[in-house]
Specification:
The protein is α/β, with parallel strands linked by helices. The protein is built from 13 helices and 20 strands. The strands form five sheets. It has a ten-stranded mixed sheet, with helices on both faces. The protein binds guanosine-5'-diphosphate, 6-O-phosphoryl inosine monophosphate and magnesium ion (MG). 6-O-phosphoryl inosine monophosphate (IMO) binds next to helix 4.
Length: 440
């Protein structure tokens, strides 16, 4: 299966970094298709070193893998520079292996300012409307892209036109910052021009026509992984709007974010955490605000890889993941962090919702916030298992009976097979049901 999308099936942080790094071993290319440095993808290498990638695709630690950042990604040159330095300092070659689309839009300093100013204003209004963004300027950068005001990497090549565009954007943003957001934090055109000239030189060796590159690779039958950031329920169209990110993490986003045809995609792997987490605000039907939620947060080290914020935790929501399976055409599931559920007396899966007012059973997920606020989860409960019982297991068939019951119920509820099961952050802490998935 040469072209495979790997995407998040919940609210992000499912362990996409681990799964992409694992599968990349058998690939020639890994390509990121959307989002920006709001993503935090953690990779633990066999020697124990751990890295969090925000922009560089999660294949970079395999020397034979070419890494592509597609046109759909919004690039913060400061974050990119830091990340390249971090990876190089780890002894990994980046030049000649990282390729960035000349069509990708740039995050400018005013995008980050506006992101923070907007969130601060929404928080102050006190009606819980703040999204709880990562503050990385993602929303404002995509706003400019779709308003046809954005600055792409290719625009840096034509200096007079770049400066003119920048002047126009900055006068508009400064007006917005001062008049609407009461901010005194303004942008200086000359400073930005100087900074982006430096970034332009730094990025130059990596910039290319990545759509052409990928389509050639597809024609040659190369093994290619398309790496999603964020997740289905944070998708701008299919997520719990407006508590979403501003891009399309779902499968369709892979084609528009890279310039490859839908007919070239062979399969879609959905990464599903064995329970649920969410960072930031918005509906979360299975959230646990009790000591079990706290226990999951501690055991799963559920603190944001990008912002360090504590993640909200809850039981697995099969209604929500079923929806992700449907809209993405997920053919195969990678279940992560199963180990974190160990040592609990019982574990639960939400299989349906129930309307609070009249008990009506709801089988399908909805992005209608009003409906989501008036339902409660219906759970199926399973006996727990001990962490010791997972030690040394390398085959799903050897898992304790109680674990297998939990896994079979997930497969039944999702209508998709769990082909990869992750029991720890390391590459070798993984069981794979079908060798065909791992040997892409
Ligand atoms: P991503 O954004 O989807 O790549 O996920 P993050 O990196 O933000 O968060 C996943 C966290 O869980 C990271 O700290 C991973 O190292 C860790 N992780 C991944 N898989 C497993 C697993 O199976 N078990 C445990 N305990 N940790 C895992
Ligand atoms: P990875 O790729 C989890 C959330 C933010 C916020 C909302 C919008 O590591 O899974 P944004 O900064 O994108 O405008 O914020 O989306 N969010 C994530 N949550 N994992 C992520 O990425 C996220 N990227 C954004 O917390 O609720
Ligand atoms: Mg993450």
């Amino acid at each position: 299966m040469p072209v495979t999308i790997v995407l998040g099936s919940q609210w992000g942080d499912e362990g996409k970094g681990k799964i992409v790094d694992l599968l990349a071993e058998n690939c020639e290319y890994v390509a990121r298709y959307q989002g920006g440095a709001n993503a935090g993808h953690t990779i633990r290498l066999p020697d124990g070193r751990e890295f969090v990638l925000h922009l560089i695709p999660s294949g970079i630690f395999h020397p034979g893998v070419q890494c592509i950042i597609g046109n759909g990604v919004v690039i913060d040159p400061v974050a990119l520079r830091d990340e390249i330095a971090m990876v190089e300092a780890a002894g990994v070659e980046v030049k000649g292996r990282l390729f960035i689309s000349y069509n990708a839009h740039l995050i400018m300093p005013y995008h980050k300012q506006l992101d923070k100013a907007s969130e601060a204003r929404l928080s102050k209004s006190g009606d819980g409307k703040a999204v709880g963004t990562t503050g990385r300027g993602i929303g404002p950068a995509y706003e400019d892209k779709f308003a046809r005001k954005g600055i792409r990497i290719v625009d840096l090549l034509d200096r007079p036109s770049f400066v003119e565009k920048l002047r126009q954007n900055i006068s508009e943003k400064n007006e917005l910052l001062s008049k609407f957001y009461d901010s005194t934090d303004f942008c200086d055109v000359e400073q930005i021009v100087r900074d982006y000239e430096v970034f332009d030189k730094e990025m130059d060796p990596y910039i290319t026509d990545t759509a052409l590159m990928l389509n050639k690779a597809i024609a040659q039958g190369s093994n290619i992984l398309l790496e999603g950031a964020q997740a289905a329920l944070l998708d701008i169209d299919f997520g719990t709007y407006p508590y979403v990110t501003s891009s399309s993490p779902t499968a369709g986003g892979a084609c528009t974010g890279l310039g490859i045809p839908p007919t070239s995609v062979d399969s879609v792997i959905g990464v599903v955490k064995a329970y649920s987490t969410r960072v930031g605000n918005g509906p979360f039907p299975t959230e646990l605000s009790d000591e079990i939620g706290e226990r999951l947060r501690k055991a799963g080290r559920e603190y944001g890889a990008t912002t360090g914020r504590p993640r909200r935790c809850g039981w697995l929501d099969a209604v929500a993941v079923r929806y992700a399976v449907m809209i993405n055409g997920i053919s195969s599931v990678a279940l992560t962090k199963l180990d974190v559920l160990s040592d609990l007396p019982e574990v639960k899966i939400c299989t349906r919702y129930e309307r609070i007012t009249d008990g009506k059973v709801i089988e399908n997920f909805t992005t209608n916030l009003k409906t989501l606020s008036s339902i409660r989860p219906i759970f199926e409960t399973f006996d727990g298992w001990k962490k010791d019982e997972l030690a040394g297991i390398s085959d799903r068939h050897d898992l304790p009976k109680n674990v297998e019951k939990y896994l079979s119920a997930i497969e039944r509820e999702l209508g998709a097979s769990l082909d990869i099961i992750s029991l720890g952050a390391g590459r070798n802490e993984t069981l794979s049901e079908k060798s065909s998935v791992v040997n892409l």
